[in-house]
Amino acid sequence: MPRSAADREVEISQRILKHWHHAVPNDRMAHLVKDASRSFLRSLQARLAAERVSLGHWAFLRILWEQDGLTQRELSHEAGVMEPTTVVALRAMEELGYLTRERLPENRKNIYVFLTTKGKALKRKLVPMAEEVNAVAMRGLKESEIETTRRCLLVMLDNLARDEALGPEPQPEA
Description:
Helix content is about 65%, strand content about 10%. The chain is mainly α and about 170 residues long. The radius of gyration is 19 Å and the shape is globular.
């Protein structure tokens, strides 16, 4: 008999908690960050589903809310996904009425992506859901602990950006 999605989510959460609290509480930091990120995304996905928005669409919407009118290539780059993945997602989002894709007269080569009124309106509904996920995750933490965690994660990002194994060190933005 198939289990409900909610039962599956509870099982996943219990497995993650068992791993971190009992099995290997001192496992590598990378694994902890990955599991925390996956848990954030699962909680957000559950909320987005109520509005019939996929997690994959969320990433593109967030970018377009801040910078409408990007090319498909720029949007792929900003989202960190391959261009074919972006094209598939944008087609689906266009069918849902969230955006339009247009070639501009001054540049017929590129396809530009613009949010529709419906796509822009989603921000009012969806951003509070993401904020709620953050609030749930931060329950029981003091403000100083949140600030320390943020600072530590930013230092880790900076250190990994300078990882010699990745090539030349990135230059700071002007």
